[in-house]
Each structure stands twice: as structure tokens, then as C-alpha cells.
Amino acid sequence: NVTVTMTSSSINNIGDAVQLEFQGTGSLTVVGSGTTILVNQNRAAVSDGQHSTMVVQKLTDTSYKVYGEIV
Known about the structure:
Number of strands: 6
Structural class: mainly beta
Strand order of the largest sheet: 2-5-6-4
Shape: globular
Largest sheet: 4 strands, mixed
Distance between the termini: 15 Å
Order of helices and strands: EEEEEE
């Protein structure tokens, strides 16, 4: 399992995004350190298995939205 920690400086500009593609087995989890991670209320910021793609977009200096192939 892999964890990606998002801080206020992980992505420089508001509105910018990064695409994460998880190739391995297990899961990829996005967490915040001093930031808020926003996802759909029925989902978690965790990849939906091997070869899943997820996007992390910076909304404000302290918040990110995660969407894509997540559980």
C-alpha cells in the first residue's frame, strides 16, 4: 500500500491538478497534512485497485479534491 500526503505546497497553483495512476497491487491513499481532502460523501480517497487512475486538484491553499477511480 502507498500513501500520498498532500500539504499546502504539494501543488503550487490553485486549480492545478495531478493525475495518479496506481500500477501495483494493494491501494493508493491520498491524505492531507495541514490540508483538507474532499471526496464524494460515498467515496474515500483510496484507489479502486491495480491500474486505477485518480486526480488530485488544488481548490484552495488548504484543500484538495480527489476524484476518479476511487472506492
